[in-house]
Amino acid sequence: MNSMINESSSATTLRDNADVAKVLGRTYSAGFITDIEMTGLPPGLDEGTVRAISAIKGEPEWMTEWRLQAFHHWLTMPQPDWAKVKLDPIDYQAISYYAAPKAKPKSLDEVDPALLETYEKLGVPLHERAALAGVAVDAVFDSVSVGTTFRKQLAEAGVLFCSMSEAIREYPEIVRKYLGSVVPGGDNFFAALNSAVFSDGSFVFIPKGVRCPMELSTYFRINAQNTGQFERTLIVAEEGAHVSYLEGCTAPKRDENQLHAAVVELVALEGAQIKYSTVQNWYPGDENGVGGIYNFVTKRGDCRGDDSKICWTQVETGSAITWKYPSVVLRGDRAVGEFYSVALTHHFQQADTGTKMIHLGKHTKSKIVSKGISAGRSSNSYRGLVKMEKSAEGARNYTQCDSLLIGKKCGAHTFPYMEVKNPTAIVEHEATTSKISDDQMFYCRARGIGEEDAVSMIVDGFCKQVFRELPMEFAVEAKKLLEVSLEGAVG
Amino acid sequence: MNQPVSTPLVESLLEAPLAPSGIAWLDAARQENLAAFAASGLPDTHVEAWKYTALRMLGQRRFVALDMAAPASTVDAASLALPGVDGPRLVFVNGMFRAELSQVGNLPEGLTLQPLSQALAGDAEPLRFSLSRHYREPGDAFARINAARARDGVVLRVAAHVEITRPVHLVFIAAATEMDLAWHARNVIELGEGARLNLVEQHLASGEPTQLATLVSEIEVREGARLQLTVLQNAATSTHLIRHSGLRLQAQAQATLHVLELGGALVRHDLKVELIGDGAQLLTRGVFMPHGRQHIDTQLAIRHQALDTTSDSSWRGVANDRGRGVFRGAIMVAPGADGSDANLSNKNLLLSPSAEIDTKPELEIYADEVKAAHGATVGQLDERSLFYLRSRGIPLAEARALLTAAFCRAVLADLPNEALREHLSTLLVEQLPNT
Amino acid sequence: MLKIENLHARVAGKEILKGLDLSINAGEVHAIMGPNGAGKSTLGNVLCGRDGYEVTDGTVSYNGMDLLTMAPEARAATGVFLAFQYPVEIPGVNNTYFLRAALNAQRKTRGEKELDSMQFLKLVREKLKVMQISDELLHRAVNEGFSGGEKKRNEIFQMAVLEPKLAILDETDSGLDIDALKQVAQGVNTLRSPDRAFLMITHYQRLLDYVVPDFVHVLADGRIVESGDKSLALKLEEHGYAGLAERHPAGVGA
Description:
Chain A is globular, with a radius of gyration of 22 Å. In chain A, helix 12 links the parallel strand 2 (202-206) and strand 3. Chain A contains 15 helices and 18 strands. By secondary structure, chain A is of the alpha/beta class. Helix content of chain A is 32%, strand content 28%. Chain A has helices spanning 3-6, 10-24, 35-39, 47-56, 61-75, 113-122, 126-133, 137-157, 164-170, 172-178, 189-197, 218-223, 438-446, 451-467, 472-486, and strands at residues 160-163, 202-206, 232-237, 242-248, 259-260, 263-268, 273-280, 294-303, 309-316, 321-324, 327-330, 336-345, 350-359, 365-375, 379-388, 396-406, 411-420, 426-435. By secondary structure, chain B is α/β, with parallel strands linked by helices. In chain C, helix 4 (117-131) crosses helix 5. Chain C is globular and about 50 Å long. Chain C is α/β, with parallel strands linked by helices. Chain C is 35% helix and 28% strand. Chains in contact: A-B, A-C. The interface between A and B is medium-sized, with 35 and 35 residues. Strand 18 of chain A pairs antiparallel with strand 20 (370-379) of chain B, so a sheet runs across the interface.
């Protein structure tokens, strides 16, 4: 199961997989660790690359075929250019699609002091800092033990939670049924690329009627290193099941990858509820716009059953470029889709993010709350689609998009699309753009609150509706994250 | 971008050679625009501005370019009068000026009003800037073919500090001909500093002409000038009408626009307003009411490019039968355009299960001392209002009709010309279904 | 405590204060009255350091410090408080949270220990009782959706918690009905103490029925034109502000 943690460290892997096998009452088969994996693949992408990745992962043939199909589709697609972002051309042949695990720093002494300083500011607990910074030894051992405890509890509840690689081997029937059923292999350029070459990711399966006994967050937070730049996540909640999943962490991760193209698929059957929260703080590049991650992500949920609910909450402060539209297809009657987003850009960051709510079922409801904050020379766009299909009898949507500008050189943009084909549906959209008012600033300062604190207080208030949707502990960290991200934005 | 597909429509529009005008710069501009049209062809729905208006069907049809005027007997000059519009009138039939239908008479001092065909026969130099324009955006195909092919239209100038009190009436009539006709008209309108003008543009049909008509208007409103423009589009439901209006407002200039889109088969209006001078003010109001199989697409783009500019836009859509209404309301505030205040609202009613509304308000903001907001809704009549009326004894159908009419009429509230407002209001109500 | 000498200030290029002199000692309550446009609110904003109010001449000395060079938050930390005429709404920022942040920022600047949430809550409870304010206000965002009266009472409540040395009340009485006015006045009276001074800016005399001032000054055309005791307020009530311009500047008040 911990192939997500560190596939190459065979001692740990074996021990841990054995643990998992015990818990799940299955036999562990270890044949999948190969020498190729240790060295990684050279840069370049062709059919052979896709086959090699599949082979490294020890995947069944249907999986290899699935990847190849996506790859062939990808070859026919142009890179999309409609988002409001400027980027240098990406040379897809210059990327290594399966990197050998990076040499990890042996102790915190070897970690970039700037990174540690940020952890300090964010108040990340000491024992987590090492793990976040990618320090190999103690932290990982520590997290393994933590992880094991959680896993035991989850297994007792019948929840399957493991890496995607393992899921493909252990639960092929479930994966085969749902993988690509929400985001098809050829869905869009980056999703197709991901489908062809994804390295790993998470798999969650909550059986019928089960409420997941914990937030699937702490575990992931410690284990989310080296899932690679092409991450694939699949969460399935069967009838009546509930799960809350938190992705990412509030501290910047040590990562040299330039391009991240992840895919996340959520499936909610009748009466199921999935809450997916993201705090994204990948490396945004420096204050001159040099470096930083391209974060091109496809996230989509399918409210497949009646009365199901999917809620996306995201706090996006990192990455040089973010291109991301977590969406919900409201297929079942009375299904509910929600999207709460805070996107903050500073320096030269560019974010083009939003959501799609596709209403098919009767009396489906969706709510969108998006808060964009632009500072420095950054560009921040909300892009969203609300679609009421003919069948969406009595469906409703409410959208609120607010943008806050800090400084004169940034841009804040709103591009909502509304397509309505049912006369009983109601769609409402409101958007505002403004800066922090001088009156608000003066009021705070006249009460003794300094300028920087006043700004973060007002920004925090501006984002309140979204933070409220985050699990408690992460709301606190998200708030701190905004403060850190906004440093130097005023004045 | 894919290679343009040459469709029967594109071929037919390119068929006739360009007749030389005798004006070198004009012929050059026409040639270039024609070449650009030939190179680009028609935009497909991947072009953002045409996302909701597919030209596949239209692209398969052929329209002939004919400088043939429709028989005069089909148009009755007396029927052209509009209440509250008693100024000079210029009438164009199938894109060509018709003196016998027009009433130019003695023009007030400071007003120049003549057909483009005549203006070009005289001193064409003042038109050079407007007529040499190139339309470069991917969605501008029809503006390009218009720039290449338009032979007639309106040239209107109001001298500085002149107030034209009586509304000027421009009428564009599509009259049925034997063959399916394509015609193109082009207006050049200019208000000098501090000038005032009340202008009414009307589109009408005589018979059921199957036509493709394009109209490009370039309107310059100079410092401190005020323009009141009312557009009544009542084309035949067999006419494809594609308009491109470009307004530029200089410092302290004010423009108030009222647009009623009632007729047409495929109707498209690109309305681009640039607030290029400090303190320029824009107010736009519009209503589009697609019914039957009509497709009405309005693309409003407002650019705040100077200090302390304001824009206030409110558009309403009512779609019935298999009608489809498309609206884009884009507000852009350029870097440094501090003090801009922009507001846009688009509310829509869907009256039938086969009707569709696609709306897309946009904000693109590059300055921070800005107030910008937009809102859009698609839905039905307010249940509480409906109930209130019924509780007072008004039957459901009547209550609906009443509220729908009120919904549409709201866009006329700011129209100062009372007689015209009443007339337009009646037209709106007539267009509504008797639910 | 406060000594204003020859204060000239401009707003948007227009001279509003034209040589204002005023002295206030600890424990005193001063009222500044005057017609609209006399510069009353400008005075309050200048004293608290609002942007856009340009001081072109004169000095303001507060407990020996040059107040005009200090940032607004620094002035607040030294005990200057402005009860706003139009308190601004700050969506999403909880009222209690805001107040605690303000108090602790001030205490930190003064080198005092910050209050933890328990201590702060205790303080707030005490003050609530005194101010007769429902604690429902505390759970809402700063001024958001407050009625006019609630906003003004919230200002007085903030004053009670922050315990300033010099409280400037800018038209705190405007827009209040008589019951709300009484409540506000009672709040102010509770806070009167020998080491605290008040400067009440008001257009009407009626607040002064409930908060009796030690001194009344008339501000007209950017200067103090007359000073006296509370009887001056009554006189103004009777005769109005007409004819003020002709009076001689009264020089230093108090």
